[in-house]
User: Fold this.
Amino acid sequence: MDDQILKPGDRDYVGALASGLEVLQAFDAEHPRMTLSEVAACTGMDRAKARRFLLTLHSLGFVKRSGRQFELTPRVLQLGYAYQASNRYRAVIQQYLEDITAELGESSSLAVLDGDDVVYVVRSSARHRLMAITLSVGTRLPAAYTSMGRVLLAQLPEAELEAFLARAKLEAFTASSVTNPDVLRDEILKVRELGYSIVDQELDSGLRSVAVPVFAGNGELLGAINISTNAARVDMETLTGVYLPRLQTAAEAVRRTTR
Assistant:
């Protein structure tokens, strides 16, 4: 097998598998329970097709049914656990992030790029809550508006970065949000030059974060780690003078202890 990415219509592309996974991913924090019609609308499938996939997932134990409503079961967690268990670096990084939280009293996370989002794969949470949503392993946020996302976008080859900028949906989440693709490109290129990213209240008012890339000892990009905090509590001088060096120290420690 090579690294070529199959597309719908390719001989080896299994459309039924893709559709089944699409149905699973239709359930989220905003849609924890849905009717057949709602699943069909979310996925763009016709009702008959959506019904077949829901009933198949129900028979496999990934979906449960209550009247007209469908929802995911805890068995779905096995899929995420398989990823976590197969990632030999997770436990090492978890310890370094917990050390940061214990020392600074701030939340620290590791995320990877998945499409146009970052996905949290390791997290050490502080007691105070920073966003309206609960951030946890598996949370997805738009890469364009997170410090970890911009760090990871800065690692992309030029062609992939340009493709991202061409398709990215830029929104004004706050008055500080970047909505111009050219400005976003400049920000990402600056991150590439500096080796870190600071995003100040672009995704959520009051949310300020700094991130750096983290590599294994063999040069493999493992993701990006960040420290997130409240803008009213931590000023930019502290973020760059204290939090950034602490992150860089953690990233270097990961590099030294992983292969």
Notes: DSSP finds nine helices and nine strands in the chain. The mean pLDDT is 89. Residues 236-257 form the longest helix (22 residues).
